[in-house]
Write a structure and sequence with these properties.
- By secondary structure, the chain is α+β, with helices and mostly antiparallel strands.
- The protein contains four helices and ten strands, in the order E-E-E-E-H-E-E-H-H-E-H-E-E-E.
- A six-stranded antiparallel sheet has the order 4-5-6-9-8-7. A two-stranded antiparallel ribbon has the order 1-2. Strands 3-10 form a two-stranded antiparallel sheet.
- A hairpin with a 2-residue loop joins strand 5 and strand 6.
- The mean pLDDT is about 85.
Length: about 180
């Protein structure tokens, strides 16, 4: 946050309600999607494959936390969120922390609470495509459904990459807003 005459300050995600400047999904009419139901499908500790290690700037085979969430918008499966975190930065993060977040609490406030990781920047790439068989099964949608994806690399104070995420949404129901 920039304060004129004072400088630049890091804004906490805690006690802010739903505040996430990185929320990109909108309905096709342009309204931002802030009310949705989330189902955490997986939360695993695994070794980083080469492509994930590259995105996180860590060694191939380093320990990562990998989770997948399914989003329901207007009671319909609409989005899939897949994330990898370097385990060394998130030693305290547990399944329950993500699954049992308070209503309106952002995931980034959870990172801040459990491990003191404060997301200060993100870079994203956007692409279109079709649901893969695995994604179609997880989202309960027909294989080949058109999707929009963002690939996000989030950074903490100091610029260190701390999260790689792939967000996938049903392009028939959502769009991604980049401002």
């Amino acid at each position: 946050t920039t304060r004129f005459g004072s400088g630049i300050f890091v804004k906490s995600y805690s006690n802010q309600g739903f505040w996430n400047k990185y929320q990109r999904f909108q309905r096709l009419d342009g309204t931002i999607i802030t009310a949705y139901r989330i189902k955490l499908l997986t939360f695993e500790h695994e070794k980083a494959e080469e492509n994930i290690a590259h995105e996180l700037n860590i060694a191939c085979g380093a320990s990562v936390i990998h989770w997948i969430r399914l989003f329901y918008v207007d009671n319909l499966p609409t989005g899939l969120d897949e994330c990898w975190l370097p385990e060394e930065l998130f030693p305290n993060l547990k399944y329950e922390d993500i699954e049992n977040r308070g209503k309106g609490e952002s995931l980034y406030s959870t990172y801040e609470k459990t491990d003191g990781v404060l997301i200060t920047a993100a870079s994203e790439r956007v692409r279109g495509g079709l649901l893969t068989p695995v994604q179609a099964n997880l989202m309960h949608l027909p294989m080949g459904t058109p999707v929009i994806q963002f690939l996000r690399r989030s950074r903490m104070v100091g610029g260190h990459v701390c999260e790689f995420r792939i967000g996938t949404c049903d392009a028939r129901r959502c769009q991604i807003c980049i401002e």
